[in-house]
Amino acid sequence: MSRQSQTEIAVLGALSVEPMSGYAVRAAITETLGHFWSESFGQIYPTLSRLETEGHVVRDAVGQTSGSTFRLTRSGRSRLVALLHEPIAAAPPRNGTLLRLFFGGLLGPDTCAEIVTAARDHALVLLGTMTEARAAIVAEGRPDAAYWLITVSAGEHAAKAQIAWADETLEVLRRLPHRGLRSGS
């Protein structure tokens, strides 16, 4: 699945919840999907324009793209369902923490422990955010809440796994000898 198709899923999916402006689509993606997906304004606005041209969304208010309200059409809902059925393309991972730890021999155990502690702290914040999201979704009582809670559960599990990994890694780093750092030259 292409990057463009994934952006379409995010935009059409946001509009399947309720009509909104381009700015609100970006906010919804950031606030709701932001724990596992991101889109920039530079991706959202061209996608909205193309989807409008293709008849998948309609603009309810005349004006600039950012001030207009877009809503999903019947063909837009069909396009969203078709995209959701496409195979998922695996994206190569990019993890700055692991990249630094792989070369941790150049940093030493103390600096690596700082990096891991920061990752653990971030995971704790994420876990708190997921707990709040779970409570908000349950309180709303939406008919599709079970599906949203599945993604929250993934976030909770990922955060708990990150915390467990960080605790284990910090223990390994505590036992490493404090050798002199290797120079880059």
Task: Characterise the protein shown here.
This protein has 185 residues and is mostly helical. The chain folds into 2 domains: 3-85, Winged helix-like DNA-binding domain superfamily/Winged helix DNA-binding domain (Arc Repressor Mutant, subunit A, Orthogonal Bundle); 96-175. The protein is 66% helix and 5% strand. It contains 7 helices and 3 strands. The chain has a 3-stranded antiparallel β-sheet. Helix 2 (22-33) packs across helix 3 (41-53) and helix 6 (109-140) packs antiparallel against helix 7 (145-175). The chain is elongated and about 65 Å long. The termini are far apart.
Tags for this model:
single chain; 185 residues; mainly alpha; 66% helix; 5% strand
Q: What is the compact description of this entry?
A:
This protein is mostly helical and 185 residues long. 66% of the residues lie in helices and 5% in strands. The protein folds into two domains: 3-85, Winged helix-like DNA-binding domain superfamily/Winged helix DNA-binding domain (Arc Repressor Mutant, subunit A), CATH 1.10.10.10; 96-175.
